[in-house]
Fold Pancreatic trypsin inhibitor.
Amino acid sequence: MHVLLQAAFLSTLLITMFSGNPSGMSVQMCSYPSGCLQPRKTGNWCRETERYSYDSAAKMCRQYDLGGCVETCNGFITLEECKKKCSSL
C-alpha cells in the first residue's frame, strides 16, 4: 500500500511539473490580451532562458532573457505566440 501511494504521488508530481509547460517553471492562469500588459519577470537567476514579451510602450513583442523561476502572463516561448496573444492591443 505504501509503495502504491508513493507511485501515485510521484506520478501526480511529474504530471503537474511538465504538463503544458515544457520549461517546468511555475505558470499562472492567464487571460489575454490583458495578460500582455503585466510586467515581464526577471527575478532571481536560477535559469537563463530566452523569452518574448509585449512592450506596451512600443506596441510590439520583444525578446528578453528570463532569469527567474516564475513567469508572468507576459512571457512567451516564441515571438509568434506573443504576437498571436497580444496583437489586438
Remarks:
- The beta strands are 49-55, 60-66.
